[in-house]
């Protein structure tokens, strides 16, 4: 990813300082309390995140009928699973799934800003919101994926899906070779946020 983006080396500390200053100002003005941020972070660490997406993908891998329902009506299929309440809210409105196959690879971007299905992928990474990624991935997805360490052969079609407030996409990656006979719970370990975004593939250990 070094060719894609050029961040200041102290970006983590710089961003943390800005967030802390903004948090202190909002607390001072009475907009939030000192526990508000902790509550929100706990929500996305324990209830809404890529662990939900891993459960959805693993079920799709072992249950072809569920996969068909997931592709046809993603919210309805997700509602079948024992997942936390609120999957359809908190940036999860209007989620849609697309599936990778031997002849097609899917990539998720957001050209407008950073729309992202938080309930299944967690919080978006730095590079997803970067204007360079958003513009280049739309124009030259094959080159961008190669820079991510994922060269896609010319014979495989790349489809780019643009998330928005109306539709928030995520990818069902192909089930990794060597995972035959594994349980649904074991398969969840192979599902990463990057694979569900299309910048990586699921790999068995």
Automatic annotation (TrEMBL):
It is an enzyme of class 4 (lyase). GO terms for molecular function: nitrile hydratase activity; transition metal ion binding. Its EC number is 4.2.1.84. InterPro entries: CN_Hdrase_a/SCN_Hdrase_g_sf (IPR036648), CN_Hdrtase_a/SCN_Hdrlase_g (IPR004232), CN_Hdrtase_asu/SCN_Hdrlase_gsu (IPR023900), Nitrile_hydratase_asu (IPR018141). Signal peptide: none annotated. Keywords: Iron, Lyase, Metal-binding. It catalyses: an aliphatic primary amide = an aliphatic nitrile + H2O. It comes from the Bacteria. Residues 15-200 form the Nitrile hydratase alpha/Thiocyanate hydrolase gamma domain. Fe(3+) binds at residues 110, 113-115. SUPFAM superfamilies: Nitrile hydratase alpha chain. Gene3D superfamilies: Nitrile hydratase alpha /Thiocyanate hydrolase gamma (3.90.330.10). Belongs to the nitrile hydratase subunit alpha family. This is nitrile hydratase. It comes from Arboricoccus pini.
């Amino acid at each position: 990813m070094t060719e894609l983006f050029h961040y200041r080396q102290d970006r983590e500390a710089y961003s943390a300082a800005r967030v802390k200053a903004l948090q202190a100002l909002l607390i001072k003005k009475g907009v939030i309390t000192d526990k508000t941020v902790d509550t929100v972070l706990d929500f996305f660490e324990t209830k809404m995140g890529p662990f939900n997406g891993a459960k959805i993908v693993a079920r799709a891998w072992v249950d072809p009928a569920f996969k068909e329902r997931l592709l046809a009506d993603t919210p309805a299929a997700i509602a079948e699973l024992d997942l936390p309440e609120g999957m359809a809210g908190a940036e999860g409105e209007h989620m849609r799934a697309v599936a990778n196959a031997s002849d097609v690879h899917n990539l998720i971007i957001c050209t407008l800003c950073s729309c992202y299905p938080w309930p299944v992928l967690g919080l978006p990474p730095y590079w997803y919101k970067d204007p360079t990624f958003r513009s280049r991935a739309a124009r030259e997805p094959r080159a961008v994926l190669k820079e991510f360490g994922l060269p896609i052969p010319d014979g495989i079609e790349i489809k780019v899906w643009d998330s928005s407030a109306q539709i928030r996409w995520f990818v069902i990656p192909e089930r990794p070779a060597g995972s035959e006979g594994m349980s649904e719970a074991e398969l969840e370990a192979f599902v990463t946020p990057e694979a569900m975004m299309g910048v990586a593939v699921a790999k068995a250990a």
